[in-house]
Design brief:
alpha+beta
Length: 363
């Protein structure tokens, strides 16, 4: 038996009106896609974060005359059976930038290794997959995604015009997605920095062990870059939230105007409900259910459309060009919840309150 008081009955019997309202809610669901695009910037840094948290990089300080403290720390670290010291390996000044999914250019980490064996050892500990057998002095190594982003091929010679301080040959590709540059450049003299890693300890444990060994001696221990990079990307998040609130307020006004017109035509219907004994609470719940059901259908449809769009864009464009759009992000989810709340709650409250005032005797 049909129940005219049911929210499902109204949506089913008023497809045109529900579709119009649903389209407005569908726009709110698009905030999820916007949040995913903003979060995509972090994809390019995730591998670099992991690298900087696994490898402890130490260097000499200008106040360490004759490098005595540095040399003594290296000697003590080398005595620890759990630690692996790679002399004259560390961060470098070179940088190759890349174009992110949002379309702007970023650039980040670049590390040099003194020998090809050191690089292969580091990659084994880091779990990087690839064929590194041809890596030698003068080689540069990029991830496959990074190379695709820049349009580089194996065998290409990269130099100062690409952001490096010299010429290096691209001799290997990492299968893992990391947007960092690794190259092998041997230096016999002035060994004033080193990488410290471990095949048995975590990156945090290695760092703590190095700090403990160093004690008060004058050396520089570079810290992971996660917090610094996130602080630089934070303005993008702030812009997103400002745009989110602005869009939500505009959508809320528009949706309320559309729904107001629809519900004004139903004042007689709700007046009858009141005349036959329906309570104000039941009226409010009916209005809430109708609007919430329309919103749920629009949101589910919107998220499904976004996932299909994301899949097609990744497979047809982004991944082949060394870019990526995440299918899900906390930022997008938060944006979706906030947008729905800012649009849905005022509409539900206003329409429910207005329909409770319907009086059949006025018609």
């Amino acid at each position: 038996m049909k129940n005219p008081f049911s929210a499902f009955y109204y949506v089913k019997e008023n497809k045109g009106r529900s579709l119009l309202i649903g389209c407005m809610f569908f726009l709110a669901a698009m905030v999820f896609l916007a949040g995913n695009y903003i979060h995509s910037s972090y994809y390019y840094w995730d591998g670099i974060f992991e690298y900087s948290e696994t490898v402890t990089d130490i260097a000499v300080l200008p106040t360490d005359e004759d490098f005595r403290d540095y040399a003594s720390v290296i000697e003590d670290i080398d005595k620890d059976p759990d630690l692996i010291v790679m002399l004259n390996s560390g961060y470098a000044a070179s940088v190759i930038d890349w174009k992110c999914t949002l379309g702007f250019t970023m650039g980040g980490h670049c590390a040099r290794y003194n020998t090809a064996d050191d690089l292969r050892t580091a990659f084994r500990i880091l779990g990087y997959r690839g064929d590194f057998s041809k890596v030698h002095e003068g080689s540069v190594v990029l991830s496959r995604a990074f190379a695709a982003n820049k349009g580089f091929q194996l065998g290409d010679v990269l130099g100062p015009e690409d952001g490096l301080h010299g010429e290096f040959t691209l001799d290997a590709l990492i299968e893992n997605d990391i947007f960092a540059v690794f190259f092998v450049e041997k230096e016999e003299h002035n060994l004033v920095r080193a990488h410290v890693m471990s095949a048995t300890l975590t990156g945090r444990e290695v760092r703590e062990r190095v700090e403990q060994i160093a004690g008060g001696r004058k050396i520089k221990i570079n810290q992971p870059i996660r917090s610094d990079v996130k602080a630089q990307l934070e303005p993008i998040n702030i812009i997103f939230y400002v745009a989110l609130f602005t869009l939500s307020i505009v959508l809320s006004v528009c949706v309320n105007s559309v729904i107001s017109g629809q519900y004004m035509k139903r004042m007689y219907e709700f007046g009858i409900y009141r005349a036959i004994g329906r309570t104000k609470g039941e009226i409010r719940r009916k209005c809430s259910a109708e609007i919430a059901l329309t919103d749920a259908i629009a949101t589910i449809t919107g998220v499904a459309a976004i996932e299909i769009y994301t899949f097609l864009m990744n497979e047809l464009y982004y991944i082949p060009h060394g870019q990526y759009l995440p299918y899900f992000s906390i930022l997008g989810l938060i944006g979706l919840v906030i947008a729905n709340a800012l649009v849905l709650v005022p509409v539900v409250l206003l329409r429910g309150h207005a329909m409770c005032k319907a009086d059949v005797t006025e018609f």
